[in-house]
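Structure tokens please, single chain.
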Amino acid sequence: MKIVSWNVNGYRSITGQNPSKRYDKVTKENKFFEYIVREQPDIIAIQETKANLEQINEELRTPEDYFAYYNSAKIKKGYSGVAVFTKKEPEEVRYGFGQSRFDDEGRIIEIVFDDFTLLNIYFPKGYADHERLDYKLEFYNYLFDYLNKNKDRNFIISGDYNTARKEIDLARPKQNTGTSGFMPIECAKLDKLIEMGFIDTFRMFIKDGGHYTWWSQRGRARENNVGWRIDYHFISESMKNKVINSFHQPEQTGSDHCPIVLELK
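Here you go.
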């Protein structure tokens, strides 16, 4: 089984509904469907769709041979949003955790199968202001409470966590110690997830630095590999023996993030 997570930074752009620009080149390629046809993931979870369903052209809403599930922001259009496309129809689909303060931003889809549950999550950014940083930390805490209440389930928690955990997870740690996304209080939330028994699958295979999933669109950061690793597949300890591989695809363009892949037995 191949599970992909990808912050697409705008579903209408990555599918070619709206033009996308990279440096001076403007295109209307459907890089998202091209990727799916080539890679054939069993499940692809995306974040930052920036669109309500009615804003997406009908022929672009569902890739061929997939079931599609969207959770868009209720507070404003063109903001946040997640979606999951899966070849196998799930037993159940849930949108959010039942807490409107978090659910109204369209950040969570829970896909329930017989033997595991996939949480596709677009974690909030913290920014510099205390209000959004507090919101981000509370969002993490609410997730932890949910996981603790469901310890008997096998979880895969995929998405854009908007936090780099260790110095090796970003190219310039010293310059970013006080930047949201690498503040000690944020890094501690990922430490807490590991203390709870969850596993960062990428680190099962790759121990060194220089591997990132997001690059600023300024200053040719991607070409120079000046990035951050902020996208993850975390799994329950009970699923560890099912993991075959976990890796990034930095060569795939279309977003300021790259896809991350989890392969399971």
